[in-house]
Amino acid sequence: MTQNNILIRRYIIVGERRLSNYWWAIVIFLGSCGFLATGLCSYLGIPNWLNLFNTASNMLAENQEPSLTTLPFFPQGLLMSFYGSLGFLLSIYWSLLIFWNVGGGFNEFNKKDGFVRIFRWGYPGKNRKIDLSYSLKDIEAIRVELKQGIDSQRTIYLRLKGKREIPLTGIGQPLTLKEIEKQASELANFLQVSLEA
């Protein structure tokens, strides 16, 4: 380990670029395309190609020829179009969050220059970059908060003078209890401050 690695620690925060977000953006997009296609087919009065699979499997079980039927536009086709539009907009929003990497960034603890830097990407606009910097002298403690239950939360906080607390862990991808304890104790030892639960 070099001298700089001993004096500087950087923890990467993933943000929205997680595999689960890519998965759900693609699944919602494909599902919404199916709903929109069904709604559009019912509006135009043409048989829906998606209905072919369901009809064919039912007819083959009864040894009949599959026939396509049109879905009435009101109310079924209209609702399918509505749900497809909502799903499409949601998938675009989710894709933009992934592209912008909202919540991603890093926590840097620099003993060499005597500061802590917390950087996060936000939504586009005036406050896109959230870049906080504090002196190491202002740090009082590292606090760990554990909330158990259905939506359990495990968060590491950086407590500064004046009782201000800044969360250091990312949202949406919780660490295990062992990982949170290890990271918090390493950080408290590195900064030479107390560790609170």
UniProtKB/TrEMBL annotation:
It is a multi-pass membrane protein. Coiled coil: none annotated. Pfam families: Ycf4. The chain crosses the membrane at residues 21-46, 82-102. GO terms for cellular component: photosystem I; plastid thylakoid membrane. InterPro entries: PSI_Ycf4_assembly (IPR003359). It comes from the Eukaryota. Its main location: membrane. GO terms for biological process: photosynthesis. PANTHER family: PHOTOSYSTEM I ASSEMBLY PROTEIN YCF4, PTHR33288. Seems to be required for the assembly of the photosystem I complex. This is Photosystem I assembly protein Ycf4. It comes from Yamagishiella unicocca. The gene is ycf4.
